[in-house]
């Protein structure tokens, strides 16, 4: 049974006001260390069930948990990009490092869930400038929980439908023609209808069947796009090329769920972890397979295992 997560207490404020205002929520703002949590596609603040348990563990380590709203949250991911996410994370990091009250004076860590893992790697793969200090933003570590492949999920689910394959082909063709921002057809999506007593599913279709640019659809669902960082078909050379730039800047912890429903059913997470460790053996990569963990880690025992692994990783950061 999936239980409703415990409520979190903290402070809500803005980390930027231009070009648009974006908020963040922080537990235990007085702590010197900060962990920025980045959710996956269709998610936003507060929807990942293990966050209350994680916040408790972080508090014991003098870390605050940071959740924030980015433009790609909910249905915005279809017209967004990983680099756009990374730039917004940089803005948040700069704010945390330079704000006048309780700034980050200790360690700054990024933790991604699902496609948030791609955001962690993308952020760390190049230098990010703190515009207020003129120095590079230093991130002490990155954590990736449920680093699975969108393209493999597409291949095993939507990709079996001719219409989906045609849409992918059309998207890739638009990108080749220099039209990455072309919007894919959504004429089949029905407008929201009034239901009994004025209730219904609201605008959930904008999240579950969002608008897509050709670029993002191809990047998410095609092979070897910008989003394709964790597929099981990547060889050692591809893994090194993809992850080494990030690992050159910060150690990474990869947390695989033993029962992740978004991972290919014929892929053993234990073998994937070993493959990555072997490919990146000279770099600061740690992996752990979490028993009983599905994609969002609903199971309480799995949540404890995950939080213990995060705590061990954080204690080891220099």
UniProtKB/TrEMBL annotation:
Keywords: Hydrolase
Enzymatic reactions: a diacylglycerol + H2O = a monoacylglycerol + a fatty acid + H(+); a monoacylglycerol + H2O = glycerol + a fatty acid + H(+)
Pfam families, per the entry: DUF1749 (PF08538)
Transmembrane segments annotated in the record for this chain: none
Domain of life the protein comes from: Eukaryota
InterPro entries recorded: AB_hydrolase_fold (IPR029058), SidJ (IPR013744)
Record GO terms (molecular function): hydrolase activity
Taxonomic path: Eukaryota, Fungi, Dikarya, Basidiomycota, Ustilaginomycotina
Protein name per UniProt: Alpha/beta hydrolase family protein
This protein's record includes keyword Hydrolase: yes
């Amino acid at each position: 049974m999936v239980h409703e997560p415990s409520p979190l207490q903290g402070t809500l404020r803005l980390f930027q006001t231009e070009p648009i205002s974006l908020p963040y929520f922080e537990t235990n703002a007085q702590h010197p260390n900060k962990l920025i949590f980045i959710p996956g596609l269709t998610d936003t603040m507060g929807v990942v069930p293990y966050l209350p348990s994680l916040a408790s563990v972080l508090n014991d380590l003098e870390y605050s948990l940071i959740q924030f709203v980015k433009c790609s949250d909910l249905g915005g991911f279809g017209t967004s990009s990983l680099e756009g996410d990374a730039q917004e994370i940089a803005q948040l990091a700069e704010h945390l490092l330079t704000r006048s009250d309780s700034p980050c004076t200790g360690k700054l860590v990024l933790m991604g869930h699902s496609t948030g893992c791609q955001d962690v790697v993308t952020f760390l793969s190049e230098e990010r400038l703190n515009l207020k200090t003129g120095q590079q933003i230093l991130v002490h570590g990155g954590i990736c929980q449920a680093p699975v492949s969108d393209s493999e999920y597409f291949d095993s689910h939507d990709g079996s439908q001719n219409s989906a394959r045609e849409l992918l082909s059309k998207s890739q063709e638009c990108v080749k023609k220099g039209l990455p921002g072309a919007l894919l057809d959504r004429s089949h999506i029905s407008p929201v209808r009034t239901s009994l007593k004025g209730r219904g599913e609201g605008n959930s279709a904008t999240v579950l069947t969002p608008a897509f640019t050709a670029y993002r659809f191809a990047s998410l669902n095609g092979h070897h796009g910008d989003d394709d960082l964790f597929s099981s078909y990547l060889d050692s050379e591809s893994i090194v090329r993809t992850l080494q730039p990030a690992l050159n800047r910060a150690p990474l912890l990869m947390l695989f769920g033993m029962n992740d429903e978004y991972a290919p059913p014929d892929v053993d997470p234990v073998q994937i972890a070993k493959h990555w460790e072997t490919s990146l053996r000279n770099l600061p990569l740690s992996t752990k397979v979490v028993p009983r963990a599905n994609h969002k880690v609903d199971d309480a025992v799995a949540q404890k295992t995950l939080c213990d692994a995060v705590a061990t990783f954080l204690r080891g950061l220099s």
